[in-house]
Amino acid sequence: MGRATSKRMHRCPVAAFQKMIAGKYKLRILWDLQDGQRRYGEIRSGLLRGTEGTREIAPRVLSRELKALAASGLVIRKDYAVMPPKVEYRLTPMGKSFIPVIGEIRKWGARYLAGENLSLAS
Amino acid sequence: MGRATSKRMHRCPVAAFQKMIAGKYKLRILWDLQDGQRRYGEIRSGLLRGTEGTREIAPRVLSRELKALAASGLVIRKDYAVMPPKVEYRLTPMGKSFIPVIGEIRKWGARYLAGENLSLAS
DNA sequence: CAGCATCCTGCGTGATACTG
DNA sequence: CAGTATCACGCAGGATGCTG
Description:
Two copies of one chain form a homodimer.
Chain A: H1 13-20, H2 26-32, E1 38-39, H3 40-46, H4 59-72, E2 75-79, E3 87-91, H5 93-112
Antiparallel strand pairs in A: 1-3, 2-3
The first copy, chain A, binds a DNA duplex through residues 22-24, 39-41, 44, 55-64, 79, 83-87.
């Protein structure tokens, strides 16, 4: 099955949204990329901030997340094909358009999931 | 009350958000509840709309989703304790405050995930 | 540095049967 | 009607080692 309809026309945007951002890191990666391009290692380190207790993210996992984001059309992978390797990821226009949505999520989450923390912006 | 807060202070609202809406149906359930209270069976049937191909949602799954939503403080379960059973679920103020966020998600999803499918509606 | 190959484990999801 | 009890399964996510 599957076949021609590799990308289904979702009648339910919410379901599509959930699939798109499935995974622990996708939203945070997108958010981190809003400032500009980032290298693989930068993204990786960025995901560790605020999570002292946790371990390093498995390369396999991060790799898959990034591929999925690229496949969704949210980010673009730029491989400089140099040695040592240098790869940068940046948001596509579609990805950029999604940032405000994450912003809304964060705003709501800051109020209802983290107390009356008013001072955060970022 | 130091740790009286049953809900942890998440430094990352996004991560907390993801946990909160984890599961295939939570967002859709919340969205469906915005019009008012709904009974268990109504929610169940509502989740089938627009998903002709799929089968009925397993009671076990829906039950867990609803419990999780209640535990998150997004919905309230009202049990009428009658025979035959009648249980209604409705949004808490916190749950209602979350509806606009879903609205943003849907708006974005309708534009970028459903193509130029203008038949958006619900 | 930016991954890929392999193994392993927990749990989310589904299907079915049963109950107050 | 509104669930609970079991069984089964795929896959996300982690851990390690290796490579161009």
